[in-house]
Amino acid sequence: MSNILIKSPAEILLMRNAGQLLAQVFTELDGFIKAGLSTMDINDFVGNYIVQTLHARPASKGQYGYQYVLNSSVNEVVCHGVPTASKKLRDGDIVNIDITLEKDGFIADSSKMYAIGTILPIAKKLVDVTYQAMWQGILSVKPGATTGDIGHAIQSYAEKHGFSVVREYCGHGIGREMHEDPQILHFGSAHTGITLKEGMTFTIEPMINQGTFKTKQKNDGWTVVTRDKKLSAQWEHTLLVTSTGFEVLTLRNEETLPVT
């Protein structure tokens, strides 16, 4: 626990502001994304909005040598899809847009799935189950719960619906740095792992596959795809552990908290 940074009330205010700004980015993107756009078009649109309108910084750009403001992961791409001018969105695609934003020294991280035109029923089921699996993980967050409780809730829900949970990539602590302790696995056993405490901030971002959970990285050194070329989906939010449960710092306008 010594490496886990508990955020102060002043730091939480700054993280909440960054999270609300990031939610605005997705609201703006909702009216922009469509078939025929390239993933680079989306990258440039988001970058301009973050810098010019929100006066914030795209935190992914320059991180670990990455040159873009977001990840755009289409269909069988699990995560870390690199925007390109040649990759055009087509009717029937599903795409995850993963964006990080830094404001006043603190970073928020969130991703959302977009359905382009009319998608196959299996794709819609995967997208919907992944979203609900993320919420199963979020709803388990409270002081005294464990990171294993989060993973167990996500894995149980996804597998109950016939899908698999990617193992190699996980959620993470977040604050002044994009990646802090602890790691948040999206699979595992209840009552194991690190105990959650008030003031912890981290992401929950399950990657759920239509087929096998196995993945492979492409030669670009970034893009991760399903090994069986079947579909993958992901959703992500940044969370704060509160005295009584959780706060979703990146909650978007169209979202409401599930009733427990």
Strand portion, in percent? Answer: 15-25%
Global morphology? globular
Rg from alpha-carbon coordinates: 17 Å
Give the uncertain stretches in residue-range form: none
Write a structural description.
This protein is α+β, with helices and mostly antiparallel strands. The protein has four helices and 15 strands. Strands 1, 2, 4 and 5 form a four-stranded antiparallel sheet that branches. A hairpin with a 4-residue loop joins strand 14 and strand 15. Helix 1 (9-30) crosses helix 2. The longest helix is centred in the N-terminal third of the chain and has 22 residues, at 9-30. The radius of gyration is 17 Å and the shape is globular. The two termini are 29 Å apart. The mean pLDDT is 96.
Secondary-structure map:
Layout: H1 9-30, H2 39-53, E1 57-58, E2 70-74, E3 77-79, E4 94-103, E5 106-115, H3 121-139, H4 147-160, E6 164-165, E7 171-173, E8 180-184, E9 201-204, E10 207-209, E11 215-217, E12 224-226, E13 232-234, E14 237-241, E15 246-248
Antiparallel strand pairs: 1-4, 2-4, 3-12, 4-5, 6-10, 7-8, 9-14, 10-13, 11-12, 14-15
Helix pairs in contact: 1-2, 3-4
Overview features:
260 residues; alpha+beta; 4-stranded antiparallel sheet; 3-stranded antiparallel sheet; 4 helices; 15 strands
Brief account:
The chain has 260 residues and is an alpha+beta fold.
